[in-house]
Structure formats: structure tokens, C-alpha cells
Design goal:
The chain contains 3 helices and 11 strands. The protein is mostly beta strands and 219 residues long. Strand 2 and strand 3 form a beta hairpin.
């Protein structure tokens, strides 16, 4: 498969413009673990810091959302040498994927999010003699909204110009990583969802996972 640089070389005779961008963003993944997977994690991680083991490349049977990495269109700035700077909100954006929790008693949900500054370039191919029209640029996004209030965000997963997908390069200088494990068990007749103890959440200042809940979750 041709590299990104080779693809650009192949298009060198075409009318390619570049938009540089910078802003907040990161990565999001979401999995639901069964009993075997949950106890395997317990054995692997033990009392260690989960961030040393959960790096976003884990594979589980039930992947609710396999992952997206990019900027938040509502908090990014784009620029071009010829036209100056733009805000991400200047362009059309659409949430084509919405990820929400659907609590299941007897399961362990694992969300992986990162946060920091991201930057890169969007390469837009114009037709011959065509001028760039901001009205034709559109961002397709994934929005995630989990029960844990710390797990809400929006990430660009694709960029389109006049209906055609654009090449996008995204990078960063390091991200904060937030692996989170929440279990579900039992049902309260007066509640709309099962009880949901937090097994691990770095934003709750937990040094290690609370594995004692697993027996009750998978009873």
C-alpha cells in the first residue's frame, strides 16, 4: 500500500491545498468485557497502575466502538498561508456516530480516552481552476457520552470536501491517558439502570483497581 507521502507525490500535478490545524483532542475507545476477560485483566494488572497495562491496543470480544483519534472541531484553529486562520466552528460538522452506555448487569465496561493538544494538516484536492469554498468543507465526528461525567467528548473521524474524503495527518506531543473500568450488577426496582461501581478511574484519584467488586458483578 502506498504511503501517505507517495500518495501526495502521485497528486503533485493536481490542485492540492493544505489546511494546518491545532487544538484540543485525543482518542476514544469503548469495550464491554465478559467474565473471563474481566478476571484476566485482574490477573494481569493486580495492584499495578492500570495505565501501565491498558494502552488502547487491547482486543476484546465485544467492542462497542473500536476507536477514533483526532481534534475536537469545536476547539480547533485552522490556517492557510493564503487565507489566514479559521475556527473549526466556521465549518459544517456532523455527529455521524453517537456512543452511549447501554448498561448490562454482569458486565464490565472499559473506556479508553486520551486528552491533549493535537495538530496536523488536512489535504484538500480541488478541481482544475477551482477556488477553495469553505462551505464545501465538512467534518464527520464521533460524540461519546457515558454515564461517568468525565467521559464526554467529540472527535473528528473524517474530513470531506464537496463530498470527497480528504487526507488528514494528525499528531501530538503526548497525551494524558484515562483508562476507566465500570462494572454493572443487580437491578433496583426504583432505578433505571443497574448498580455501577467504579473499578478504576484515574480521575477519582484511585491508585489501583478495586477488584473486589468482580465477584458481585459476575455472580
Amino acid at each position: 500500500m502506498a504511503s501517505f507521502e507517495e500518495k501526495l507525490d502521485q497528486k503533485e500535478d493536481k490542485n492540492i491545498i493544505e489546511l494546518s490545524f491545532e487544538g484540543s483532542g485525543g482518542e476514544f475507545q469503548f469495550h464491554r468485557l465478559n467474565k473471563n476477560e474481566a478476571f484476566r485483566l485482574k490477573e494481569e494488572i493486580g495492584d499495578d497502575h492500570p495505565g501501565e497495562h491498558l494502552q488502547g491496543s487491547d482486543i476484546f470480544e465485544n467492542t462497542i466502538f473500536e476507536g477514533a483519534y483526532g481534534p475536537d472541531p469545536d476547539d480547533m484553529e485552522l490556517s492557510n498561508d493564503d487565507w489566514g486562520s479559521f475556527l473549526g466552528s466556521d465549518f459544517a460538522s456532523e455527529d455521524v456516530t453517537l456512543v452511549e452506555e447501554k448498561a448490562e448487569a454482569g458486565s464490565l465496561e472499559y473506556s479508553y480516552t486520551t486528552n491533549g493538544q493535537v495538530y496536523g494538516e488536512i489535504h484538500i484536492e480541488l478541481k482544475e481552476n477551482e477556488a477553495f469554498d469553505p462551505e464545501k468543507l465538512r467534518f464527520e465526528c464521533v460524540r461519546y457520552d457515558l454515564f461517568n461525567v468525565n467521559r464526554k467528548g467529540r472527535v473528528i473521524k473524517g474530513v470531506f470536501y464537496d463530498g470527497e474524503e480528504c487526507e488528514i495527518e494528525t499528531s501530538d506531543n503526548g497525551q494524558e491517558v484515562f483508562p476507566c473500568l465500570i462494572g454493572y450488577f443487580g437491578w433496583d426496582s426504583f432505578a433505571e439502570c443497574p448498580e455501577a461501581p467504579i473499578i478504576y478511574d484515574p480521575l477519582e484519584e484511585m491508585d489501583s483497581p478495586d477488584w473486589e467488586w468482580l465477584d458481585k458483578i459476575f455472580n
